[in-house]
Design a protein that fits this description.
Helix content: over 70%
Structural class: mainly alpha
Order of helices and strands: HHHHH
Number of helices: 5
Length: 109
């Protein structure tokens, strides 16, 4: 929950989220931009994966969840959520954070 809140500490800014979408679109046209975004994503996955790993040690997240896969999935969800903010500024942060938190606690069958 703390991590989710930290990601969105400032109120959603429609213009900055729209700019993120523009940068993403540009990455499909310019390899240099794409390479920069890939490096940033690897750092985010590593960092978030370490946070999830600590949550596993404390028993908050099941051990069988892959930290890297969970981190990559959460980042993809955050990207989608931020895109929604660009179009729907009243998107509900609390519900989003609760959904991700609940998903991490689910046992795989």
């Amino acid at each position: 929950m703390s991590l989710g809140k930290a990601l969105f500490e400032t109120p959603p800014d429609r213009q900055s989220h729209a700019l993120r979408l523009e940068i993403l679109a540009e990455s499909f046209r310019q390899e240099e931009v794409a390479a920069t975004l890939r490096r940033a994503e690897i750092r985010m996955i590593d960092t978030l994966g370490a946070v999830i790993g600590k949550a596993q040690v404390s028993g908050e997240v099941p051990d069988e969840i892959s930290t890297r896969q969970a981190a990559a999935t959460i980042i993809a969800c955050v990207d989608g959520f931020m895109s929604r903010i660009a179009f729907t500024p009243q998107a509900q942060l609390a519900g989003f954070v609760m959904l991700i938190t609940a998903a991490l606690r689910l046992q795989q069958s």
